[in-house]
């Protein structure tokens, strides 16, 4: 392809000659011989099959083709300089700080592996991982206090000015401790039975609350009468181990405990609660190279959890 034959030196020589209106002055600026610059210009014109420059005793002037090409050649060189400068900044050890909002759904399932990948790439940035209600994190992202939020997609009204990149989808699930009384019921197919127990339920600020409420209403259960509303993952895990409570939570939060047998997933079909999990950034800002590297690490780590939480 033509663009694969055009080299950095071709663009450099063309842009400098256009700037200086002279091959000889351009050669001086570039520390090249005049014949070397002329050769690069000739090669470029032959590859493009157009005349880019008019040469006369008065100097060198751009043709109409040259004026068009200069616009794009200049943009390419600027982009390259910005890219190299950004990478230099990204490698300034100890001087790069990335503020990341982390929702519970990814705190255990994705982020540890992503951070490990990020650090193994040689980036020694300071990561500031912030948790909290989704509305708070998105508000901080919108005003620039956070660089990135990793978690479930928010409701449309909260996404104004923000951009979302999908990684995988996960559902809400119901879990109990091993030996829970419900597990002795065969078959366990009546979801109405959960009303007999204390239920840990997401708070109104939680991103999964609406999906959880819609699911229970669709099943004729409604909101559990005996419920504790919380978004505290440490409290939830310990409380479930010590009581007969049922925890309604994003599956990614407890996927490892389910796999290890520490918690048991109740066999109710919750596919209707499936929701996208991904990366949220400001729509009007290009993430820095360091943030982009972290985002790439999160994407790679997310591949490992897709089978575990289910798309």
Automatic annotation (TrEMBL):
<dbReference type="InterPro" id="IPR036388">
    <property type="entry name" value="WH-like_DNA-bd_sf"/>
</dbReference>
<dbReference type="InterPro" id="IPR050950">
    <property type="entry name" value="HTH-type_LysR_regulators"/>
</dbReference>
<dbReference type="InterPro" id="IPR036390">
    <property type="entry name" value="WH_DNA-bd_sf"/>
</dbReference>
<feature type="domain" description="HTH lysR-type">
    <location>
        <begin position="6"/>
        <end position="63"/>
    </location>
</feature>
<protein>
    <submittedName>
        <fullName>Pca operon transcription factor PcaQ</fullName>
    </submittedName>
</protein>
<dbReference type="Pfam" id="PF00126">
    <property type="entry name" value="HTH_1"/>
</dbReference>
<comment type="similarity">
    <text>Belongs to the LysR transcriptional regulatory family.</text>
</comment>
<keyword id="KW-0804">Transcription</keyword>
<dbReference type="Pfam" id="PF03466">
    <property type="entry name" value="LysR_substrate"/>
</dbReference>
<keyword id="KW-0238">DNA-binding</keyword>
<keyword id="KW-0805">Transcription regulation</keyword>
<dbReference type="InterPro" id="IPR005119">
    <property type="entry name" value="LysR_subst-bd"/>
</dbReference>
<dbReference type="InterPro" id="IPR000847">
    <property type="entry name" value="LysR_HTH_N"/>
</dbReference>
<dbReference type="InterPro" id="IPR012787">
    <property type="entry name" value="TF_PcaQ"/>
</dbReference>
